[in-house]
Design a protein that fits this description.
The protein is built from three helices and twelve strands; from the N terminus they run E-E-E-E-E-E-E-E-E-E-E-H-E-H-H. Strand 9 (195-200) and strand 10 (206-214) form a beta hairpin. 10% of the residues lie in helices and 26% in strands. The chain is globular and about 55 Å long. The protein has a six-stranded mixed β-barrel. The chain has one domain (1-39, 52-304).
């Protein structure tokens, strides 16, 4: 796509932005819909200090204010001495891009009514990321729904085919800023398709993933990633519309030079990510950095 996409705009407004206790919908000053992210996990470890030997390599945007078109909050990205992989702790907003039932013409915004099984409101996606309607000028299994894009794509299929994109309901993926983490040497940055391990520091749930979408901020992942972590973003006031999780308890470890090629088979994602994670130091290393990390839960990686 050539530049950062505007990822699920209002879902990323947390912390200094208004947050409700449960997911609710309102309207911003410019008349756009705004979702307040679920905040019912009061015993967050967001104030936990990392205790391992690490080096800060960059600061990246964590909360992007789409009204002012500026980063509202940034976080540190770290690496360990003599080990590959960049890591940071963040929230987990939820991205549905690429899923065949992500967006529907009837579900424009909350005021238009929750009319379909669409996973998100149409106002939350850029028109540049819509490539036809399935069953009309688009190809896909959900007739009447839009074909929506991710940054990572499969050249074996045209842009108006859902198979061209990474399905957020089937593939665990993370959203990062472009050229993450934007080091001076571009060769050290991660590339689309590189692997990542995401760990819920509060529960020990974990999931492999790939870098499949570019946004204005980090701390976002696909619906499948959230499900793998034992979370259910569709438990909103307007199901199945998704909500995110604002607690700063999600450890992202991204591994450069670990690209997975289309069609991004889960068995390949799982195997390559686990290999990279073990080379990084595995669960013992994660616990060295976060001593209160629970025992590792068996990843819910789904079928291959």
């Amino acid at each position: 796509m050539g530049q950062d996409r505007i990822s699920k705009a209002r879902r990323n407004l947390v912390a200094s932005q208004s947050i409700a206790i449960n997911a609710t919908w309102g309207t911003t000053d410019d008349g756009q819909p705004e979702v307040f992210i679920q905040n019912d996990e009061c015993d967050s470890v967001s104030d936990l200090v990392m205790s391992c030997d690490k080096a800060e390599v960059a600061r990246v945007c964590h909360v992007f204010n789409h009204k002012s078109k500026a980063c509202a909050e940034s976080i540190s990205v770290y690496e360990l001495p003599l080990k590959g992989g960049y890591f940071f702790r963040s929230k987990l907003a939820v991205d549905v891009d690429g899923a065949p039932r992500a967006y529907h013409p009837k579900d424009l915004r909350p005021s238009s009514g929750n009319n379909t099984k669409a996973l998100d409101w149409l106002d939350n996606v850029s028109s540049n990321d819509l490539h036809g309607i399935q069953g009309k000028d688009g190809v896909g299994p959900e007739s009447g729904f839009f074909v929506s894009a991710t940054t990572l794509s499969n050249p074996d299929f045209p842009e108006n085919d859902t198979r061209h994109w990474v399905d957020a309901e089937q593939i665990p993926y993370v959203v990062l800023i472009s050229s993450f983490p934007r080091l001076q040497n571009p060769a050290l940055n991660v590339r689309k398709g590189d692997c990542a391990m995401v760990i819920d520091l509060r529960t020990g749930a974990n999931s492999p993933a790939i870098f499949a979408d570019v946004g204005s901020a980090v701390g976002e992942g696909s619906l499948k990633l959230a499900f793998n972590l034992g979370l259910d973003p569709t438990k909103s006031r307007t199901p199945p519309k998704v909500i995110g999780f604002d607690r700063i308890d999600f450890l992202h470890i991204v591994f450069p030079n670990t690209q997975i090629a289309a069609p991004w088979l889960l068995k390949d994602i799982n195997a390559k990510t686990e290999t990279a994670f073990q080379e990084w130091g595995g669960w013992l290393q994660a616990r060295e950095c976060f001593p209160t990390l629970p025992a590792r839960l068996t990843p819910s990686v789904g079928p291959s």
